[in-house]
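Could you please consider the sequence and fold following this short note?
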Amino acid sequence: MKIGPETVVQFHYTLRNAEGEELETSRGDDPTAYLHGADNIIPGLEKAMVDHAAGDVFTVEVAPEDAYGEVDPSRQQRVPVKHLLFKGKLKPGMQVLLNTERGRVPVTVVKAGRHSADIDTNHPLAGQTLSFDIEITDVRAASAEEVAHGHAHGPGGHHHH
């Protein structure tokens, strides 16, 4: 079966940046699962998946506009340190969580002061060209429930409790 609308895809990936450094990988764990056509993964990766089948191994380069977008300078702001969740000493470059009315969001510390910090709310991978080494492990038809919920269920997918 080929990947297309209303298929559930399981795949392993290794994500690298433009310099070839490994940023994350699913290997050694369960494959990741997603419902194709439901915006579960970044657009550039989803486009590259079309028409592939189980057993396919390939590498895809994804430009920032098809991944996490360009860096938006207006997304830097100053916040009281008490709104940040972190361990140890707050330092520039750290990934921390910011408490917002919509829940916790990951942010990057640009500058740390005693009472306030300058943070960047852009996705940590914004502005980067990403390279994914993909191995498709399984492709199956999505269930009616998965289509209704907009995501894959089961191993590597969404678990309802």
